[in-house]
Amino acid sequence: MAGKSIFFAGGGTGGHIYPALAVAEKIAELDPTAKIHFFVSSRDIDKHILSKTAFEYTALPAIGFSIRPDRLIRFYSSFVSSCKIAADALTKCDNPIVVGVGGFVAAPVCRAAYKSKIPLFLLNVDIIPGKANKLIGRWAQRIFVQFEETTEYFGKQKTKVTVAGCPLRSSFEKPNPQKAKEDLRLDYAKKILLITGASTGSQNINRTICSLLGKLSDYANDWQIVHLTGRANFDQVKDGYAIATVRNKVVDYYDDMANLLAAADIVIGRSGAVSVAEYAAAGVPSICMPYPYHKDMHQYLNAGKLVDAGAAVIVDDIGDEKDRQEWLWEELEPLLKDEKKRLQMKNTCKLVGHRNSAKTIAEAVLGW
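^ thats the sequence. predicted structure below, dont judge the formating
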């Protein structure tokens, strides 16, 4: 009997691609005969991540939904085209199964699977599912979520829901912090403050940190900074560090987050669903600056899980820039000074998250 053909659908951000990649890695480990393919967006981040793996992928023309008439026509056209491309691929292979992981590119593939009566699974790692995932949930055989609270958002479909946690790449199982220090040529004797705005970077976080470099220089004897800027902001942030006396490494993007987070002593960053799961898995104390422009404010809820456990604090990324600087420094400076507090936060990370999420989901998909 031919092996299963597993199609992952979703993309546009690392927060969609990385959980799918974690499950794909585990499926390949459990069943080497399985054929794995990704349907992703045409954004550069999808290509950048998947081109470094052994998995094949197809970039679909799908775009995000908009009520503006000109964009609505483009959305409909791209949706139909993406459905057709997916349907053609799904019906030409043996034992197809689709795993939707969110993002505007997931909906047309999942729709094609539903119409062709192909088994469909949904992975929703955000605490509040978006409209597309609520729709896909109606078509899915099973829905995997990271948080217990998410179950209620699926209404009548909640009987399909399994709380599995957020699947993380296999590199998080046995990270090597020394490799990150070697790759980035860091000082082995100094502690690491890691700054990240997730896969695309954050202008607000970048500006706020640059404004605090004078104060951070007072801690130059003991600390160094690794700042992940996002590709669009690299030159601007690099220029901002010209005045810094604290040792620093400014890079636009870094793939090996498992090792880098394991090496970090404090992380300041966004609180997307995958980010908070990675902070917890790495056991790194975090200062979360949730993205403030989502209508449902779900990054605040994600961060709240770490705060409730005692593993993080929240600093709002809203309002006056001076207020943001002062608030961040108010939370950061005590952590720079207090090793005991950092250790306490590190230990409480163990209370958050599920350790076998990728395996749980992979076994369910293969067992269907």
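The chain has a mean pLDDT of 92.
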